Amino acid sequence: MSTSYVNSAAPDGMGSLPWRVMFHNGSSVGLDISRLRFMAEKTVETAQVFALDREQMLEQRHHQIDQVSELMRTRSCMRTAISEYFQGPKIARRPSLSVRVLDWAFSSRGKARRFRACCDYCNQAEIKRRGMSGYVARVIAG
Predict the structure, then answer these.
(1) Which one of 10, 69, 96, 142 is CB 3.0 to 4.6 Å from 17, fit for a cystine?
(2) What sign results for the dihedral spanned by CA atoms 113, 119, 125, 129?
(3) Which residues on adjacent β-strands are paired with residue 5?
(4) Which residues 6+ apart lie within 8 Å of 68 measured at CB?
(5) What is the DSSP letter of 47?
(6) How many CB atoms lie under 10 A from the CB of residue 36?
(7) Domain locations in the chain?
């Protein structure tokens, strides 16, 4: 079972204390989403804005909850999904000739360092081979 954690605002006037909300690949997904929707409704109720703005605000919060929920249940690279969520899709553009000449003339020759660990999806084989604790220990050790 995979569990993802998302920080969210605390309900019922508890300030900005971080609460952990879990999205499971099991039967409690609906409960987690309904908890987030409840918290969004309480936040919008206490907001000091016009009624029309409240409706738009609540609609936006529900849309964001749906987006994050979908993101947590994705069956692809989590790093790519998060990058695309915040930055939009990555578009590879070929640099201009002048930029390539400057890179050739002034850039260092060292190889770019790759990430050893990407996400649970991309590193499934290693997680299976080492076990979860062995995998986490390797990631932390660098």
Answers:
(1) 10
(2) positive
(3) 22
(4) 6, 23
(5) S
(6) 24
(7) 3-73
Would you give per-residue pLDDT tens digits along the chain (142 residues)? Answer: 444 444 444 444 444 434 444 444 555 667 788 888 999 999 888 888 887 788 899 999 999 888 888 887 778 888 888 888 888 887 878 889 999 899 888 887 776 666 678 888 888 898 999 998 988 888 888 7
Contacts of 140 (CB under 8 A, 6+ apart): none
> Position of tokens 């409704």?
41
8 is written with which tokens?
A: 């969210």
The crossing angle, in degrees rounded to 10, of helices 51-72 and 78-87 is 150
Interatomic CA distance for residues 13 and 35, integer angstroms? 15
Residue closest to 33 by CA, chosen among 16, 49, 44, 21 = 21
CB atoms within 10 A of CB 21: 19
In sequence order, the 6+-apart residues with CB closer than 8 A to the CB of 8 are 18, 19, 21, 36, 39
Dihedral of CA 64/66/72/74: which sign? negative
Helix (H) or strand (E) holding 36: helix 29-46
